[in-house]
Amino acid sequence: MAYYSTNDFKSGLKVMLDGNPCSIMENEYVKPGKGQAFNRVKLRNLKSGKVLEKTFKSGDSLEAADIVEVEMDYLYNDGEMWNFMDPVTFEQIAADKVAMGDAAKWLKDDSNEKCTIMLWNGVPLSVSAPNFVVLKIVETDPGVRGDTSGGGGKPAKLETGAVVRVPLFVQQDESVRVDTRTGDYLERA
Q: Could you report the per-residue pLDDT of 152-174, keeping only the tens digit for each?
């Protein structure tokens, strides 16, 4: 198994800590005037999402986490699991609600959207929705002419249940393009 020394630590590096896969968020090298140098590291546990702060002496090493990011097609949700398929090998994988996180509100069944899945020992840790999706508006208030005192936006419920702010001219049953990273309306589709 590969090991990373404290000299190799950088943001985004995936390591094992106490038997759990973690991602390094911040790494600060500290060389005090007296005593041995050390690294103050902020890590995110990829299984639970918790953020930890640890201190490592200079020269310590951590085991590399066997984490793979793969792109898969979204198939369907069976009520408690979201199912994905590898477009090359046709292997299917199921992700639970914890692994899905915010991605669940942007995916609709049979859309074949390309999602990035982070796997650890074949188990999905997290799912990232595509950056942009096209979804249909199922519920929104009609835009009334002259009703722009609040900045010219209104909430709209999408077919997946997500709610985004759209301009007043966008009507119910229209399709809109949404940025899944920020949840912002981009344009009509």
A: 788 999 999 999 999 888 888 99
Cα gap 167→178, rounded to integer Å: 13
DSSP SS3 for 181: coil
d(CA 181, CA 166): 16
Q: Please identify which residue in the block is written with the tokens 């119910």.
A: 172
The kind and range of the H/E element at 116 are: strand 114-120
User: What's the CA gap between 85 and 79, in Å, rounded?
Assistant: 17
Q: Which CATH architecture has domain 67-128?
A: Beta Barrel (2.40)
Question: What is the SS3 assignment for 157?
Answer: strand
| Average pLDDT of the segment spanning 124-142 | 91
pLDDT of residue 117: 94
The domain 3-63: what is its CATH number? 2.30.30.30
